[in-house]
Design a protein that fits this description.
two-stranded parallel sheet, globular, alpha/beta, binds cytidine-5'-monophosphate, 5 helices, 191 residues, single chain, five-stranded mixed sheet
């Protein structure tokens, strides 16, 4: 989404060689960034794998955890026997997969946590469970306007602790995040 595109742009400006793997968005490809468009979590995983190795991986996409397993090619007709039955299969977790790599793991793996409550506690849990170096946590409750909006209020959660930033333009969040990431790399991965 907007935050991911802003990060790609900021990383390019900071001098990185950037590959952006984007889900369906109504945003122009950032100039100078190699952009792959995908529609499914599995295609995102394939595109990410094809773009490795990388020094830094930032997972900002709101990937669906589930996909419909029994999607058909034809319209589902009304019947007298009740509504259609949807069966779900779990999608691969791109972020967790990249962070768990035993060889060729990026030096820094950064994930996002979009929550509507207990934002920091859930982010700390995600940091450990998905083996990330940094989680950028934000409250995406509808009242915040973060989803689809131009601004974001984030908390940076790492092993070192929590750093909370004020409400900022997503472009500014992206710039500051790149500065933080560069500092972390200099310090060998610590925030
Ligand atoms: O578990 P949750 O979806 O809240 O985790 C969010 C983080 O995990 C984001 O960085 C998102 O890009 C990543 N993710 C992923 N693949 C999934 C689900 C989430 O990479 N299937």
């Amino acid at each position: 989404g907007k935050q991911g595109h802003a990060i790609a742009q900021a990383a390019l400006r900071a001098g990185a060689q950037v590959v952006l793997v984007s889900g369906p968005v109504a945003l122009a490809d950032p100039t100078g960034v190699q952009t792959h468009h995908v529609e499914t979590a599995r295609d995102m995983m394939t595109a990410v794998e094809a773009s490795m190795p990388a020094d830094i991986f930032i997972g900002a996409a709101a990937v669906a955890d589930w996909r419909v397993e029994n999607a058909g090619d034809q319209k589902v007709k009304k019947s007298l026997s009740g509504g259609p039955f949807l069966q779900f299969a779990e999608n691969p977790d791109v972020l967790a997969h990249v962070a768990a790599k035993t060889s060729g793991r990026p030096r820094l793996v950064v994930g996002f946590a979009a929550e509507t409550q207990n934002v920091i506690a859930y982010a700390q849990d995600k940091l450990a469970r998905k083996k990330c170096d940094l989680i950028v946590a934000n409250d995406v409750s509808p009242a915040t306007g973060v989803m689809g909006g131009a601004k974001n209020e984030v908390h940076l959660v790492s092993k070192a602790g929590v750093e909370s930033w004020p409400l900022l333009d997503k472009d500014e969040v992206a710039r500051r995040l790149l500065t933080t990431i560069a500092d972390m790399l200099k310090k060998g991965g610590a925030l």
